[in-house]
Amino acid sequence: MTTVVKIGGARAVDPEGALADVASLVEEGEDVVLTHGGSTAVDETLEELGQEPTYVETPGGVVGRFTDEETMDVFKMVMPGKLNTDLVESLHNEGVNAVGLSGTDGELLEGKRKSAVRVKEDGKKKIKRGDHSGTIESVNADLLETLLSGGYTPVVSVPVLGREREGGYTAVNADADRAAAAIAGALEADLVVLTDVSGIYADPDDESTKFDAASTPAEFDAVRDAAEGFMTKKVMAAEEALEGGAASVTVASANAAEPITSALSGAGTTLEPGVLADEDANETPQEAPK
Description:
It is found in: Cytoplasm. The chain is α/β, with parallel strands linked by helices. It has a single domain, classed as Acetylglutamate kinase-like (Carbamate kinase). It has helices at 16-27, 39-48, 69-93, 141-149, 176-187, 217-226, 230-244, 259-264; strands at 2-7, 31-36, 55-57, 63-65, 98-103, 109-121, 124-139, 153-163, 169-172, 190-195, 213-214, 248-253, 269-271. The strands form two sheets. Strands 1, 2, 5, 6, 7, 8, 9, 10, 11, 12 and 13 form an eleven-stranded mixed sheet that branches. It has a two-stranded antiparallel ribbon with strand order 3-4.
């Protein structure tokens, strides 16, 4: 069984333990695909360049990044550049034969570019144009499986390959959680989403209210209703992963000891395919890009 691991890009996330855990799993013969976020690093780089990050709210209430042309240039520089290279370097120092990839390499992550998004401003619905983001519609699983069978550990980041209406492709932004979800679904893998909290809480301010697991639609409804802020996107991505064929999804702390191994052993909040209601089995929710 393959494990897809997503390391969050929040400042409070320390990837060191997860990278050591990846090395242990690979040494034991497990296949691991590592993916990562990096919104904090992108925002910091934008500010260093004198640009202000732009976030918008969709009519559905989901807050996400608006990626204009200048922001897209920074994404190309930071995500498959510094962040991905740093992780590959660290894994090699752990004895892992890692290969860095962006979603544009070998059509790894491909979909449709959204040049405009629907947003809500001052209580009104509007169309905001000039966006460089997209929705992932296909994953080149053969590429990942070829690397894994050759003894390599893929390290994947956005951007992804976005199809233009008039033809051709453009590198576009996509939410890193949803990219990990798409990969996990395509590989029918377990997905471990590592973040700066120990799971999903019924009360976001009270760690003791953590959901241990959800295996029925009713249990998943409780988890989804409780999710707030950044966790809303992770729950959305988890649902997409399960709909796509993932074996399970666990949201857990990146800062725990052996965070991946412990997540696969029941730490964090685990969501299983049984959470999908029959009527939703063939539907994938699509919100504005993050």
